[in-house]
Amino acid sequence: MVRQRKPGPKSLLEKHVAPKGAGLKARTIHRFVTEIQSESARSQARKGFNAMWRFAPDLLRKWKVPKVGEFQKTNLHGGRLWGSYTEWHRKPITARRIALIFEKCALNTNCSDAVLKQISKTLSYLYLLETGVPKSNWPSLPGLKITLAKRKKIRQQQTVKPLDVPTGHQLAYAFTREWRENNKSCASSVQPSVHGTRMCSEADPKVTSTKSRRAPVTGSVTTAGAQPS
Fold first, then answer.
1. Nearest-10 crossing angle of helices 95-106, 39-55
2. How far apart are CA 1 and CA 9, in angstroms?
3. Staple partner for 16: which of 76, 172, 177, 189, CB 3.0–4.6 Å?
C-alpha cells in the first residue's frame, strides 16, 4: 500500500477569495496581481509595507492607515496589506501623503537603500491599486528620489563570498601537486578575508579583483575577490 503524502499548507494566493461584483478596472488589477505578478513581487510589497510602519509610524498613525494584519483576512496578502482595488479605495492614501511617507522613510538613517527600494515597490503596487497602471509609480517619487540621493543612511556591509567551493578531492590535488616556478595553477591558498580559496599568485591582500577565475580541476576556485587592506 502506497502512502499518500499530506498536502502542504496553502499559499496566500490559494487561500484568497476574489472580490465579488468587481468592475472592469478591479478585475484587470486582480488578474495582473494574481496571474502576472510573481509571488516574489507580492512578498516584496508586503515587506515594503512592514518597513513603512517601521520608519514612518507616526505619519501612518496620524492618517489612520490600517496596520499589518488589519486588512481583509481573505485578500491575497492574508490581511497584511491592501489586496484589491475595492479595498484600497475604502481607505486610500493621497498622492501627497505617499510622497511624505517616502521622504520620512528615506531620511531615517537606519533605512538602507535595499529597504528603501522595497518601500518604492510597495508604493508602485499601491499606485497600481489607485490607477490600474502596472509597473509605474507615483509622479512625485522620481523627483523626490533625485533630491534624496545624498541622504545619510546606514552603512551597508558587503560580504566576500566564493562563487564556487572546492571539494576535498580538489584541495588534496592542489596541495599535493609538484610545484614549478612558472606554473601559476600549482595550488590555491586560503585568505582570511575571502570565504573561499585563491591562487598563490593572487594571495596579495591588496588584490581587489572580483573576477578571479580558474578551472576547479587545477585545485583553485573562483572567488569574489579580497577586500583592500
1. 80
2. 25
3. 76
Of the candidate ranges 20-34, 71-85, 92-106, 199-213, the one whose mean pLDDT is the lowest: 199-213
37 vs 83: CA distance, rounded Å? 13
Report the mean per-residue pLDDT for the chain: 81
pTM of the predicted model as reported, rounded to 2 decimal places? 0.67
Positive or negative CA dihedral for 148, 152, 154, 157? positive
DSSP string, 120-182: HHHHHHHHHHHH---S---TTHHHHHHHTTT---PPPPPP---SS---HHHHHHHHHSPP-TT
C-alpha triplet 201, 205, 225: angle, nearest 5°: 75
Q: What is the pLDDT of residue 188?
A: 46
CA atoms within 13 A on the CB side of 99: 13
- The three-state secondary structure class of 187 is coil
Amino acid at 15: K
**Which amino acid is present at 42?**
R
Question: How is residue 114 written as a grid cell?
Answer: 535595499
**Per-residue confidence (pLDDT) for residue 108, from 0 to 100:** 94
| Extended strands (E) in the chain | 188-190, 197-199
Q: Looking at residues 160-179, what average pLDDT do you find? A: 76
Instruction: Return the domain boundaries, the chain.
Output: 12-147, 168-218
